[in-house]
Amino acid sequence: MSALTIDSDRPRLRWSMLQLFNYHHLHLVSRCTRSRKACSFSGTMVKRKRNAVEGEGGSTPRSARVSKKAKLVEDVGITAVQIEKVGVKVSSTKSKRKVEASAQDVIDLSSFPERVSSEWKVGAHVSAAGGVENAVLNAAKIGANAFALFVKSQRKWSSPPLTESSISSFKSRMKELSYDSKFVLPHGSYLINLGNPDAEKREKSYECFLDDLRRCDALGLELYNFHPGSTLGIVDPSVSMTHIADCINRSHRDTPGSRVVTVLENMAGSGNIIGSDFAHLGEIISQVELKSRVGVCLDTCHMFAAGYDIRTKDGWNVTVESFDTHIGLEYLRGMHLNDSKTACGSKKDRHDNIGVGHLSIQTFAHILADPRMQNIPLILETPSHEGSNKNWDVWVKEIAVLNHLSSSSTLAASSSDEVSERMYFGSLTQGIKDTIKAAGTTGGGTASRGGNTVKRGRRKVYEEQEEESE
Ligand SMILES: [Zn+2]
Ligand SMILES: [Zn+2]
């Protein structure tokens, strides 16, 4: 668990294994070793080391709610647990349970970063390559409490429907890994432009949008995040905003009984893109009939690029107040936590790793100290710098740092010593920089998000992944 250890002199995160052991069926398995891409829960076994159950260095107070099965692991000192499923042979003795299975069918949970039991739902936009069900596993692998995914190819108008087995596997993994659908924020196709003034093209976008919504519904999800759209420079923004609201209303009518909330994302504001101004999002929502099915996702990089200076605590509070005035905090359903490669007001959508860009780690420290941001998905869309081993070490580190900030916010806030505070934030940022550097030297370098891996040259600067396409 060294990846999660921050600084030994910092307050320790109260890592809890509750999440990982709070399974109805503690079964986990697949062909998902680091050298393999495809994952399948064909078998059912969890292998976990004793020290992992006890948390960091054994000093973490053990939750009283640890499941009986986890307790069993401790009591008998077994190294693997197999829960009533077919495909794996088990023999047990009173003191030890021996599990027989081929190595490739076992996921070693001790290689998963621990997930923190917290009101802060930090995660990342993970790959769904090989099937949406793999996104759940990929989220757990990086210690995410929340995650985002594409429910189909984000750059194609149509994709094959989700298979029954994919849907059931997604749902069972959600349950097994204790993920709540409230903290899963699927991202819509980049091609969709509900504000397109051309009726025929808008219809095509609408069909793609509706298909996304139905996929979310089939997966038992509750949120669906999408980019509002663009005027394409042809019409006044107000015309596009009405088109967007009309499409949202139509989608709600076309999915009766669905609880999926259509979540508008704030944008950086390049070109003719709608949604960089909170007032625009508020205007669209005012035209939506079914208010319970509309919300907003706030992207920190986009906010900053659009001119909202959130670097100071005061600036952050003014921005949140502006959000409340123009939209309403009750509509906030999630956040994208990204640093920005470009300056405030640049209108450029260029994501950077946490603490490395213009926002700096202090921005995230005050966001992760604001209780209004609790219990909503907080999703990283930062460059992963993953190498060929796909270990996503950078996301693991970023998530650990963000969780650390959330757990030590009171201490940081009470610190009056400017120098030590600067050193503290400096060391956290350096930790992320070191992880990026290590990933770049060991992996060869790719920047990816959501399965959209783009090979770049070794040591090259990584560009952000999301695009404000028109
Ligand atoms: Zn987006
Ligand atoms: Zn972006």
Q: Can you tell me the residue ranges where pLDDT is under 50 for at least 5 consecutive residues? A: 1-106, 450-467
What binds here, in terms of ligands, is: zinc ion
State mean pLDDT (0 to 100 scale). Answer: 77
What count of domains describes the coordinates?
2
- The CATH topology of the largest domain is TIM Barrel
Please count the beta strands (DSSP E, at least 2 residues each): 18
Helix content: 25-40%
Q: Which percent band covers the strand fraction?
A: 5-15%
N-C termini distance: 43 Å
| Overall morphology | globular
Order of strands, widest sheet: 7-6-16-13-12-10-8
Quaternary class: single chain
Write down the CATH class of the largest domain: Alpha Beta
What does the largest sheet look like?
7 strands, parallel
Cα gyration radius (Å)? 22 Å
Query: Based on the structure given, which CATH architecture of the largest domain is correct?
Result: Alpha-Beta Barrel
The CATH superfamily label of the largest domain reads: Divalent-metal-dependent TIM barrel enzymes
Task: Please report the number of helical segments.
Answer: 14
Structural class: alpha/beta
Family: Belongs to the AP endonuclease 2 family.
GO molecular function, one term: phosphoric diester hydrolase activity
Protein name: Apurinic-apyrimidinic endonuclease 1
Keywords: DNA damage, DNA repair, Endonuclease, Hydrolase, Metal-binding, Nuclease, Zinc
